[in-house]
Amino acid sequence: MPGHHHRDHAHARQGRSLIVSIVLNLGFAVAELVFGLIANSLVLVADSIHDASDAVALGLSYFGLKMSERAPNQRRTFGYRKVRILTAFINALVLAGLTLFVVRAAVLRIMSPEPVKSPILIVMAVAGLAVNGFAVLLLRRDRASLNIRAAMWHLLEDFFGWIAVLVGGIIIHFTGWYVIDPILSLAVSAFVIYGAYSVFRESASILIDSTPHDVGFDTVRRFILGFAPEISGVHDLHIWTLGEGERALMAHLKVKDAEVSSFQPMLTKLECALRDNFEISHVTLELECDACKSGDNVCLG
């Protein structure tokens, strides 16, 4: 199927991009540690630890990607689609936690600035911009994926962090104002926490099976009620996200008492309409006649 083939191709591309990004981050983390010790720069040493943690975060994203490709089974009947959402959720929490450590370190640096060798800071900042910029460009084409977007926020944090380091390094070089670096770090941290919060909010919403944010529950209900004259009522309506790009709907439809086969053409058209209008691909509809018991009354005598 074309859609399935396209999804497999996208997953393969995302996997390759994540692997390259992991290798780049680990390699650069080692370089930061070495040059940080040479320059007596706490910023570079701390950022080497941060880059190593980014590699771990990207590794989690890769793990989530691979798990989501596993086929459903009798225990995991929906497969492992939400593993990618779960890894995005974890990534957002880790990113926020690490950023709070950066904020703490920045506050301490403002209170007690420490001298650093600015030329090494400038060189490493330029190299950091190149490495992280390249990694972000690799992942950018798949930014519609929540999992990939969480990974991108880790890389963007470093990218903007390196801009701050570059600007700070140049200012320090010409003025000796060491306090510039932690001030810029606070500004970057505010940007990163905002991004982490948006990923956290969206992934948490999916994990608790909320109605997708861009789908109006009442709009869908009215759409179903007005779709065909055979439908006289809708209840037990649920709309949720199975995984990235896959939405599901379940509902009970009240219809007149007749053979089930007579409603099949209408149900087929309704499923297609829900897919075309609301991008809901997994639809489960149960028919009930006016005389049937349903809802709270179904288990009563």
Structure characterization notes:
The chain has helices at 2-39, 42-68, 83-111, 118-140, 146-175, 180-207, 217-225, 264-278, and strands at 233-243, 246-255, 280-289. The mean pLDDT is 78. It has a three-stranded mixed sheet with strand order 1-2-3. It contains eight helices and three strands. The chain has two domains: 2-207, Cation efflux protein transmembrane domain (Alpha-lytic protease prodomain-like), CATH 1.20.1510.10; 217-297, 2-Layer Sandwich (Alpha-Beta Plaits), CATH 3.30.70. Strand 1 (233-243) and strand 2 (246-255) form a beta hairpin. The longest helix is centred in the N-terminal third of the chain and has 38 residues, at 2-39. Helix 1 runs antiparallel to helix 4 (118-140) and helix 4 (118-140) runs antiparallel to helix 5. The chain is mainly α.
